[in-house]
Structures are given as C-alpha cells and as structure tokens.
C-alpha cells in the first residue's frame, strides 16, 4: 500500500463522479477534490483554493483545468499551476485507477523537510 | 536529509553563487517596478528574494477602481506573472508577511519564525487605509479599498445591498462610489471638508465637481463628520456629528492612508510620518533602503505612482552601482485623473497661495468647466483643470519646464492661434507616451491596431493602454481612426461567447442545422476551446432553443445552477424561496422561521426584491431545507426571472388605482422559471406614485387613471441608472401578460449573453421593439406567444430535485475516508 513517502487510499468508484464534475473527500487530515474530466481522466487536488479557500470540487471543469467557483481563478489539474499565473499553485495528488474502476489517491505520509522545498512556497 | 531542529528556524536560501543577497519587503507598485528597474540595469547583480503579503504576483493597484466598476477583469491588471519571477531567478514569497527585521543579524522574519538573510534590504511596504477612531468600523459590511481582495469583497457584498455610504470624498472615495453605483446601489459620499477632493481642488473647483457628481445620481454630503457606524452584527446606518443618520447596508471607508512603517519603526529606523530616506533612498541604516508610499523624502510623503517611478529608477541605479551618484530630488506632482467620467488635471498644490501670487481663473458653470492657475514670480506654480482639459498640455509644459508664462496671462488658457499649431496624431513620434498610467507608447498602440485590434477594449486587452484612468481614450480612438481603415476589425467582438467564433444569429442557425443539443456537442463541432463563460452561455442558449429536447449536461453549469442556490464566500449557500409578488402569510413566515432555527441559519435577510433570504446553508442540507420550506425556488441564483416587486395597491392603499399585488402575482406565476441571457427584474405599482419603483426595472407596470396599465422596459437602478422606456398602455391583465411575454421572448432570442435589457432596449431601439411587440409588424406575434406557452409548460420547480437528484453526489458534502494505518 505504501510507496516511498506516499500511501494510496481508495476513496470510491470512478462512477461516483459524473463526467466533467468534481467531488470532495476528506482523507485523514487532507481535504481533497477529485475530478473526472469529460475525456475520462481522473485528477486530485486540494479542496481549498489557494486564493481564499473556495471549494474547488464545486468548480467548473474546462478541459483539464478547474475554475474555482468563488472568483474564477483557473488551475491546471496536472500541475496545480494557476492559469492566471500570479496566484499560488494548488497542491495536486497522484491518482491511480484500479482495473475494477476504484479511485486511489496518493497521500503524502510524511511532511517534506525544509531542504526539499521552501516551506514558504508550499504553504501559500 | 531530515529537517533542522525546531529551535533555530532554517534559513530559506543560501547565498547564491556568492552574489549579494537583496531582499525586498513589499511586492506592490514600488517593489515590482524596482525589480524591473534593477534587472534593466544589471540582471546578474543580486540574488533577489521578495516578500509580499498579498497572495499574488504584483498588480496595478490604480486599476482596482476599474475592477470594482466592472470595466476591467481582475486577471488583466497583473503586471508580472509568477513565471516572470522564476525566469529572472527571483524568489517570490507571495502571501507572506515580514514581521520583524533583525538589523544586527541582517535577517527578516516571517510570522512562523522562518527567516531570510540579506546583504541589502529594501522596504516597499506602501500604505494602509486610515480607519477613523469611531464606533462600528468592525461591523460586517464595513470595507476599506486598497487591495484586490478588498475589491472582491466589496463587489460580492454589494450584491445583497441597496444603499452604500462612502466615508471620504477624495480621489479614492469617489472611485469607490463610482464602483458601487455600477453594482446597482444608492450611494452617498460623506466628506468632512467643505468640498470634494480637497487635496487636488480649491473650494470653487470642489463645488463644481460636487454638482457634476450629484447629477450622476450620487448623493454628496460635505462638511459632515461621521460619528458612528450603526448596527448590531452588520451595518444598518451611519450617524453624523450633527445627530442626523442615514440608512446604509454597507460602508466603504476611504478616509486617507497611513504609510506602513511598523516594521521600520520597531527595528529602530528613523521614522516621522513615514520612513525617512535621503536622496539615495537610504534609511538611517546604510544597508536598508526604502521606496514608494512608505517613504518620506525631504519632508514629503507621496500618494501617487508618478513619483514612485522616479524613485525606483534612482534606487536601482544606486543599488546596482550603475550610477552610484544618482539622486532623487523630489517630484513635482502633476496628475491627470478621471473621476466618475469627469476629467481633472492637477499640477502642484493648488491650496498653496501667497499674497504676492497671481491667480488666473476661468469658469463656465453651464458646462461644469473650472480652470485655475497660480503664478508665482512669473512661473506656473500650481493649476487645476476640471471638466475640459483644453489647455492641459500647455500647462503641463509650463509646469515641468519652469519656463516664464506668457505676458498676457490669459494666454495660459487660450494660446494665440498661431502658436497652437495643430499636430496630427499621425505625426506624433512612435516613442510618444500615450497612456501615462501604463506607460504605453504610440508605437505599441499602432502595432496593435495593425494586428486587428480596432476597438478600445481590444487595444486595452492587448496593450493595457486606456485601461488606467481612461483619460487617453480619446487619443486612442483618434489613432484607431487614423490607422485602422486598411485592416479588418477584430471579429471576436460580435461573438455570442468567446469559445465559438460566431455571432448569435449564425450560431443559432448552425446549431439548428446540425441539431446540436448539448454544450459538449456545440463545443466539439463549432468551438475552438473551452471556458466557463462559454459553457454557461451555451447552456442557456441551448435550453431556450430546444426546451425539453435540450440535453442538460450539468457540468456545463456554474455551481449555482447545479444545486439551485447561490454559493457564498465560505462555500455555503443561500436559499430564497419564491413568494409571488412579495406576498406571504403568517403560516409561511412561521415555517420559514422554524426552518431557519432548525438549520441554525446564521443570517435571515429581506432582499431588495421583497423576498426572504436564508444565508449560510450547507450543500448537504439544501434538499432538507427545501422540503421543510415546501415552497418553490425563487431563482435568485441564476439568469432568469428574479422577482416581481409590488406595492399594496388598491387592496389597501388609499391612493391605489388598481390591484398591483394581484397583477404582480399573476406575472410572477406566468413567467417563473423563464431563463434569459441575463437576470430580469420586474415591478408593479398601483398608481403613478410608484412605490414599487417600477420605472427602474427590466419590465415595469404602473396602474394609471382610467383603469389602464402602463408597461415600460429597459430600466435599471445602478450605475446605469436608466428610467425605463414606456412601451404601451393596455387595459386588461391578459394584455399585460401578453405584451410582457412577447417582449421577454424577443429579448431572450436577440440579446447577447449577459446583456441586460437596459443595454438591449437602446441597442435595438424602442420604436422597433414597439413595432414588433405591440403592432406585430414583423408577424412574429404568434411565434412569440407560442414560445411563452412552451416555456410556461416546461416549468418545473428545480427544487424538486431534492427527491430525485439529477446526478450522483449532487447534494453531497465532503465524504470522510479514514486514513489507513501506515506500517
Ligand atoms: C483604488 C486605488 C486607486 C488609485 N488610483 C491612482 C491613480 O489613478 N493614480 C495614481 O497615481 N495613484 C493611484 N493610487 C495610488 C497608488 O496605487 C499608490 O500610490 C501605489 O500603489 C503605492 O505603491 P507602493 O508600492 O508604495 O505601495 P503598495 O502598492 O501598497 O504596495 C505595498 C505592498 O507591500 C505589501 N506589504 C506591506 N507590508 C508588508 C510586510 N510587512 N511584509 C510583506 N509585504 C508587505 C503590501 O501587502 C502591498 O502589496 C490608487 C490607489 C488605490 C488603492
Ligand atoms: S404606488 Fe400608489 S397604489 Fe401603490 S402603494 Fe404607492 S401610492 Fe399606493
Ligand atoms: S477562493 Fe478560489 S478563486 Fe478565490
């Protein structure tokens, strides 16, 4: 179940998310938004928008980006980067789909040390 | 590779390649521009780290007024994208406030104890709004106006408000007032001084401005001191020193600014009104510099951007060593401003008059023009121009050059014909700066025009020109006329939505021809991309085109339209049940009260449209709340018929000529659930006293003497305060319903996405609309009536989805998943 610093947790079947929509899960301490695009791919990001905490799972998907429902900032589901390119990125999580169609989300099991990445940037 | 022990917080970066470490605190107008100027001098010189308290890259603060009044999108005011910082090797800590400077260790500290060492430090912390020490400033609904987030908060709160008070009648207060007008609010500006804009204008000038602004529908109270903002949890009124009081749903405080100097003062840097700097922008610590609104140079603190551009240029030269002798000697303040569409030029300090000065004045009250110049020792010392900027260029030249003014003083304003040789726009050199706010030259604008940007908004988008104070728009228009004849205009202006390159008639024809019934099908076959505005717009169009055949893809809808409630800033929702004509019953009120208690609704509010709003409901509670209420949806969250406001009318009112409540109820029942390109509000008054304010609605009905009803359309009560145009008079309820129905369908079919009736009616023309709707000259009547029938028959209360959710998880909150134990 555990791969390196990441533990994969099953949150539910792909069919629980209608195509083109998102759904929010609360996995341990992590609030995660899981999206299923119309092209059939599944992505996971933090549920809280880095701007003012908007619920991203309630956002609208445009292609492989999500538009936050509060102020319409737009985030790339692959990288978490904000399209407007002046807002901090949203945290993304690795996703694995089992052959039976279950969604598994990779949850970090230990916090990264300050050498890995500047703590100022990760928390903003 | 484990983390350092918690006792000594780790340094955030190490000295990169032995380059000196430059840390900048504050990523606003000054901080951002300084970085650009430093890179222009010597991109390799420093390892640069920037801290900014706001969670963004830097943006153009002076455009916030435009964001608030809706003429600019927030995303278009950013100056440098995050990628720019990365490309230039600058470490940006956005959303991080520096709370302490250790000058001995040469380190700055953030709130969480993280720190960053520096060799050179620049403070560019700007200012904060001044909050007067009166009771009530912490109530809900009280705002300041300084940051992008302030702007968003004001705009989103304004939606539930009708009356706003702006405290402060200076530049910022007036900008805020203008912004609030565009949000359909009734705005009062309160100023302590006897006249508006007392920094830039003298008393007669301020009075002229006051009159101009009152004519725009804003109330102005000068010589008025605010004593208290009144309310329990949120604002309800504002009380003044003379004991009078005016009701208010929101208050914006724009009573001046105070430089952010806490950080500097606490580490012992010399501060007076602001951080004291010398001619090289150095503070009392030789390793620390300061720039922008937080500095005091030669006793002067500046509050505009022009001096900041001069300061950053000098500081960049000093820091990089490209000109170690560069000096900043102070700025002569010359500003061109646009206040509520009123042009204003202010040079120097107009209040500063000595007995030996000559004063030249010209005023033309009928056109609200006021000019004044102060001449000291034969030179232009200060001036202000209001309403007509005819002599602005000449005055600015005199002011900056310090040249002698003409012997015949009147020539300051009216130069003799010969010397005012007209220069055509085509002759201007390419390098000539046209837009001072954004520093855009003629060359850049002409290049954009040649690339097909042939409208003001298109040029604004491409170059930012004209998107600041707007005073250069006339010149840009002239440039378009000069250079645009040989190019084709940007066609995207006419598209119904951005992602499909077609105007509405072409798009409708194409959709019909191909039988496209879902948003994804339209985007796939006709689109060239995808964005949220297009998805919403197409969903609305397809629904009206296909009715029951429309394939309703819920992911093409905004969250509000997915769960039939209005999302709030904390992710909860608001619920407004339908109350036909604003009429309710004791039982209904008791039930609403019980629901509010049961779900611990944090706020129950009466809306401007006479309905009850339950705010703060969790998504998962929506179906239960609707079921307990047992009332249909009030459609307060979407582009549809909102409310029909009514007065009591002949049933109870002693003036009433006809049954306005009955009429309002009939209209609301008939057209409930009809969706349009934008929201539609209506009202019915029982006599011309018009208590329901029917003449400022999209559709208004007023009972007149003789049993008739007067129907008017295209009204609004906001920035575009627009009295509706009278369409016709009819005598029966049936006729009222028929005329309104025809107009609504015609509007639905022909309006652009998000075009309100107050733009639509003048665009099409009242006479044409009357011909079509009342006289049926195009023979559309039967079709329009049939469409009304079709839409009325298709109405289903969306709140019934509580029993059969339209898709999996529609009303689910966050599902909890336990975290497995890690081995
Ligand atoms: C709505 C509005 C309209 C305006 N219109 C005009 C106009 O038309 N013409 C004109 O010339 N001027 C105008 N101004 C004034 C102009 O915006 C300011 O003069 C200018 O922004 C000052 O620049 P600055 O960099 O000194 O301060 P700011 O732009 O305020 O930048 C300071 C930045 O530092 C950050 N900061 C502060 N303390 C810390 C800390 N301890 N740690 C980290 N970050 C910190 C702040 O969050 C802020 O982002 C307007 C201002 C407003 C608000
Ligand atoms: S509009 Fe006329 S009828 Fe209606 S409440 Fe006012 S005075 Fe009475
Ligand atoms: S909270 Fe997401 S864009 Fe503002």
Automatic annotation (TrEMBL), chain A:
Entries under InterPro entries matching the protein: Rieske_2Fe-2S, Rieske_2Fe-2S_sf
Record bears the keyword Iron: yes
The entry's keywords: 2Fe-2S, Iron, Iron-sulfur, Metal-binding
Entries under Pfam families matching the protein: Rieske
Domain Rieske: 9-104
Species classification: Bacteria, Pseudomonadati, Planctomycetota, Planctomycetia, Gemmatales
A GO molecular-function descriptor: metal ion binding
UniProt keyword Kinase, yes or no: no
Gene source species: Thermogemmata fonticola
Name used for this protein in its record: Rieske 2Fe-2S domain-containing protein
Automatic annotation (TrEMBL), chain B:
Pfam families (UniProt xref): Fer2_BFD, NIR_SIR, NIR_SIR_ferr, Pyr_redox_2, Rubredoxin_C
InterPro entries, sorted: BFD-like_2Fe2S-bd_dom, BFD-like_2Fe2S-bd_dom_sf, FAD/NAD-bd_sf, FAD/NAD-binding_dom, FAD/NAD-linked_Rdtase_dimer_sf, NasD-like, NiRdtase/SiRdtase_haem-b_fer, Nit/Sulf_reduc_fer-like_dom_sf
GO MF annotation terms: 2 iron, 2 sulfur cluster binding; 4 iron, 4 sulfur cluster binding; flavin adenine dinucleotide binding; heme binding; metal ion binding; NADP binding; nitrite reductase activity
Cofactor stoichiometry and binding remark: Binds 1 siroheme per subunit. Binds 1 [4Fe-4S] cluster per subunit.
Residues where siroheme binds: 691
Pathway it works in: Nitrogen metabolism; nitrate reduction (assimilation)
Presence of the UniProt keyword Glycoprotein in the record: no
Residues involved in [4Fe-4S] cluster binding: 647, 653, 687, 691
Protein name, entry field: NAD(P)/FAD-dependent oxidoreductase
């Amino acid at each position: 179940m555990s791969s390196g610093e990441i533990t994969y947790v099953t949150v539910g079947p792909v069919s629980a998310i209608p195509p083109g929509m998102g759904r929010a899960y609360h996995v341990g301490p992590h609030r995660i938004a899981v999206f299923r695009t119309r092209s059939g791919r599944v992505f996971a990001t933090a549920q809280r928008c880095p701007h003012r905490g908007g619920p991203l799972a309630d956002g609208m998907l445009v292609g492989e980006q999500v538009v936050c429902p509060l102020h319409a900032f737009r985030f790339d589901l692959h990288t978490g980067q904000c399209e407007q390119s002046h807002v901090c990125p949203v945290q993304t999580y690795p996703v694995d789909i089992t052959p039976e169609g279950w969604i598994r989300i990779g949850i970090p099991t230990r916090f990264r040390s300050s050498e890995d990445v500047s703590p100022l940037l990760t928390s903003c | 590779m484990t983390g350092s022990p918690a006792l000594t917080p780790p340094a955030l970066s190490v000295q990169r390649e032995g380059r000196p470490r430059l840390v900048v605190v504050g990523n606003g107008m000054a901080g951002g521009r300084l970085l650009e100027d430093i890179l222009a001098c010597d991109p390799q010189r420093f390892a640069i780290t920037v801290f900014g308290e706001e969670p963004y890259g830097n943006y153009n603060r002076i455009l916030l007024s435009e964001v608030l009044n809706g003429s600019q999108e927030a995303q278009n005011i950013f100056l440098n994208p995050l990628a720019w910082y990365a490309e230039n090797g600058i470490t940006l800590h956005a959303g991080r406030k520096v709370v302490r400077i250790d000058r001995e260790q040469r380190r700055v500290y953030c709130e969480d104890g993280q720190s960053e060492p520096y060799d050179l430090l620049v403070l560019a912390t700007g200012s904060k709004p001044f909050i007067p020490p009166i009771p009530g400033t912490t109530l809900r609904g009280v705002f300041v106006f300084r940051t992008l987030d302030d702007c968003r908060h004001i705009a989103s709160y304004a939606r539930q408000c009708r009356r706003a008070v702006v405290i402060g009648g200076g530049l910022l207060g007036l900008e805020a007032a203008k912004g609030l007008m565009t949000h359909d609010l009734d705005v009062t500006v309160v100023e302590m001084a006897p006249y508006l804009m007392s920094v830039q204008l003298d008393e007669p000038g301020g009075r002229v401005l006051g009159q101009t602004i009152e004519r725009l529908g804003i109330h102005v109270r000068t010589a008025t001191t605010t004593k208290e903002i009144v309310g329990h949890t949120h604002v309800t009124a504002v009380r003044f020193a003379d004991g009078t009081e005016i009701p208010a749903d929101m208050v914006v405080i724009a009573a001046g600014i105070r430089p952010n100097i806490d950080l500097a003062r606490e580490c012992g840097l010399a501060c007076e009104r602001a951080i004291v700097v010398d001619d090289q922008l150095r503070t009392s610590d030789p390793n620390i510099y300061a720039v922008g609104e937080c500095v005091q140079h030669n006793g002067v603190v500046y509050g505009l951007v022009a001096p900041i551009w001069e300061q950053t240029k000098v500081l960049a030269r000093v820091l990089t060593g490209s000109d170690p002798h560069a000096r900043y000697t102070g700025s002569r303040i010359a500003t061109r401003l646009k206040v509520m569409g009123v042009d204003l030029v202010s040079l120097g300090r107009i209040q500063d008059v000595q007995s030996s000065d000559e004063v030249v004045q010209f005023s033309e009250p009928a056109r609200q023009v006021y000019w004044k110049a102060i001449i000291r020792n034969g030179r232009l010392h200060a001036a202000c121009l209001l309403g007509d900027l005819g002599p602005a260029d000449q005055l600015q030249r005199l002011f900056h050059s310090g040249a002698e003014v003409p012997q015949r003083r009147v020539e300051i304003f009216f130069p003799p014909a010969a010397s005012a040789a007209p220069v055509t726009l085509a002759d201007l050199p390419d390098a000539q700066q046209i837009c001072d706010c954004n520093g855009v030259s003629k060359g850049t604008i002409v290049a954009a025009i040649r690339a097909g940007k042939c409208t003001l908004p298109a040029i604004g988008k491409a170059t930012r020109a004209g998107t600041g104070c707007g005073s250069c728009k006339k010149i840009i228009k002239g440039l378009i006329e000069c250079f645009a004849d040989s190019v084709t205009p940007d066609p995207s202006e006419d598209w119904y939505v951005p992602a499909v390159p077609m105007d509405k008639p072409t798009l409708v024809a194409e959709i019909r021809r191909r039988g496209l019934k879902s948003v994804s099908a339209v985007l796939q076959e006709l689109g060239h991309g995808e964005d949220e505005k297009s998805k919403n717009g197409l969903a609305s169009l397809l629904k009206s085109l296909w009715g029951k055949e429309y394939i309703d893809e819920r992911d093409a809808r905004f969250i509000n339209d997915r769960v039939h409630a209005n999302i709030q800033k904390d992710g909860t929702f608001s619920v407004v049940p339908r109350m036909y004509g604003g009429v309710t019953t004791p039982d209904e009120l008791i039930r609403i009260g019980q629901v509010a208690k049961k779900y611990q609704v944090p706020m129950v509010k009466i809306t401007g449209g006479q309905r009850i709003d339950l705010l703060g409901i969790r998504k998962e509670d929506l179906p239960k709340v609707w079921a307990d209420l047992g009332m249909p949806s009030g459609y307060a969250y979407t582009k549809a018929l909102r409310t029909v406001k009514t007065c009591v009318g002949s049933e109870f009112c002693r003036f009433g000529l006809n049954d306005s409540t009955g009429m309002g109820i009939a209209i609301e029942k008939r057209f409930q659930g009809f969706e349009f390109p934008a929201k539609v509000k209506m009202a019915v008054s029982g006599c011309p006293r018009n208590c329901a304010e029917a003449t400022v609605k999209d559709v208004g009905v007023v009972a007149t003497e003789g049993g008739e009803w007067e129907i008017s359309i295209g009204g609004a009560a906001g920035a575009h305060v627009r009295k509706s145009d009278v369409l016709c008079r009819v005598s029966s309820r049936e006729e009222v319903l028929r005329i309104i129905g025809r107009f609504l369908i015609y509007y639905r079919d022909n309006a652009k996405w998000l075009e309100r009736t107050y733009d639509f009616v003048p665009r099409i023309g009242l006479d044409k609309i009357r011909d079509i709707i009342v006289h049926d000259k195009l023979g559309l009547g039967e079709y329009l009536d049939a469409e009304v029938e079709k839409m009325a028959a298709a109405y289903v209360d969306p709140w019934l989805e509580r029993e059969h959710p339209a898709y999996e998880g529609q009303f689910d909150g966050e599902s909890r998943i336990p975290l497995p134990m890690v081995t």
